[in-house]
Amino acid sequence: MNRKPTLAVVGATGAVGAVMLQLLSQHADVWGEIRLLASPRSAGRKLAVRGEETEVLALDEDLLEGVDVVLLLAPEDVAARWAPIAAAEGAVVVDTSAAFRADPDVPLVVPEINPHAVRVRPRGIVASPGCSTLALIVAVGALHAEFGVAELVVTAQQAASVAGQAGVTALREQLSLVAGTELGHRPGDVRRAVGDDTGPFPGPVALNVLPWSGTPTEDGWSSEELRIREETRKILDLPGLPVAATCVRVPVVTAHSVSVHARFERPVTVGRAHEILATSPGVVLYDDPAAGGFPTPADVVGTDPTWVGRVRRSMDDERALEFFVCADNLRKGAALNALQIAEAVRPEIGTG
Amino acid sequence: MNRKPTLAVVGATGAVGAVMLQLLSQHADVWGEIRLLASPRSAGRKLAVRGEETEVLALDEDLLEGVDVVLLLAPEDVAARWAPIAAAEGAVVVDTSAAFRADPDVPLVVPEINPHAVRVRPRGIVASPGCSTLALIVAVGALHAEFGVAELVVTAQQAASVAGQAGVTALREQLSLVAGTELGHRPGDVRRAVGDDTGPFPGPVALNVLPWSGTPTEDGWSSEELRIREETRKILDLPGLPVAATCVRVPVVTAHSVSVHARFERPVTVGRAHEILATSPGVVLYDDPAAGGFPTPADVVGTDPTWVGRVRRSMDDERALEFFVCADNLRKGAALNALQIAEAVRPEIGTG
């Protein structure tokens, strides 16, 4: 076929969907029809994509007919139900939820790191990693290619939009309650001012750090923390890699930041790490702290790359590096990576 | 002598000084005269201590005469100058600055961990560690006593009051500028709204995470990060302990939080770690995440202990634990630890 492939965006009205429509309008126009789908609750809205107002339709099996690629930007339960349906209709499904990431028959793809993996998809589904994994994996993968990663210890400071628009709304409402006050000096005064309704967060996030993200799993780990471990292992094809992750939530709107301790198989130098990071696709090195040069979430939000700064070699181990990465959790952490996967799949279809 | 010893508080008008006066009013009344001293700029103010309005006097050599213990809550340069003067006058000096912490003739004391160290002070000076070290050391020291710590990787999320009242003021002003806005979605929009005057911070701290604290040192490390390493080694008397620290600043008023990865010499279990932490002086264990039970800075601010939660054993190493600690950087992180040192020194003087 020589026609341009048809794309469906499921979850077009959410926080990640809004970024996806922006990206589709900015990237090379390689798609034919773009169908915008969402839950019946959101159907009927009109959204701009490629400069055209497009009506959002209620997700339905009929509407997946003839679709070549589905970008599934939906919660895990919706994805678990609809990905197999769309795949059965013949579409390649790119799923941003956690539903299929651990499935051995579903590749987990970061195009800068393991682009080849996209070709083998027995279930017709390709999974995109979680936003915290995506915040660090492009930089870690680039260094791994040269030094061989042997262990990771990371602390991910997640932004409020990790919980979608509801997270951003909760943060903004809480900020309005605490700004202009003297709160934050007495035990629990922020919690009392914010009240019991903390939205999608397990406590107040304004003027606070919440050391919890996701759902409880075995032995005290949160689901988000274990996912960073499992996803990193799968993407790097290192099933035995030791990974210890801590996820906390901070009062930032969008863009995750991660402090990374990486031990490698071979000795490292800051100079060589700088060279690698400065020349790796998808990475921007910004590392001049004496002159105020380091990435921060509020500075990199809305940009595509993974930003890396604060690179230092361990004082105690010539094989270990510390560094600090920031990436927009809605862009590289969700919409952008999924679209990159779709764009990597497209040549198989459009020129088939 | 049977008289109660005379105490001088230098830096009584600062953020740590305010907490010190509170603590002096709450703790057992073991002191005779309490002299409040500060820079000439702050002299003349009246502050309440033990229920009495007390005039703040300008720091002067004459005023150190007859003082038994000096609590030095001053910047590093002031401490470097005045600590030897006060010691020469015969006082025991408890210094909260970094000026003498690395001096082999100055003990670095955390009363829960190395109380014996306070007895040997060739220069008449006892140093109190920095606030980030103090946030984690009580918990780490308790676990070390049983398991033997072999390596630490930590990320310290520092509160704005790490930069004193100026830091809190800057955070509050920035919050007023961003609350009620849609800022935080576009690159640099928070930075532009806040403007170039970011107070004591190297960038906007509202809606942000700043991966920098202190001054530049060799090889990209910040002074605060290296201090955590050096102070932890000295307090635990483990000069070869590998410690990799990252310090970031977050939009929290007061109370630091630290994610800790600790590898030990012997195998650990969460159960035994819980038992140790639940029974260690100065530590509160709060670890029931499935029920929302974990410490956060906004909940523990204004309290004395080190709070510990999120204890989990590494999935990859039976000798490693992750945990999350919170402590008030003005209390245990500064004023309280210094006062505990002074109270440990007092019996030598008051009953001499």
TrEMBL record, chains A, B:
InterPro entries: Asp_semialdehyde_DH_beta (IPR005986), NAD(P)-bd_dom_sf (IPR036291), Semialdehyde_DH_NAD-bd (IPR000534), Semialdhyde_DH_dimer_dom (IPR012280). Keywords: Amino-acid biosynthesis, Diaminopimelate biosynthesis, Lysine biosynthesis, Methionine biosynthesis, NADP, Oxidoreductase, Threonine biosynthesis. Signal peptide: none annotated. Pfam families: Semialdhyde_dh, Semialdhyde_dhC. The keyword NADP applies. The keyword Zinc-finger does not apply. Homodimer. PANTHER family: ASPARTATE-SEMIALDEHYDE DEHYDROGENASE, DEHYDROGENASE, PUTATIVE-RELATED. This is Aspartate-semialdehyde dehydrogenase. It comes from Streptomyces lateritius.
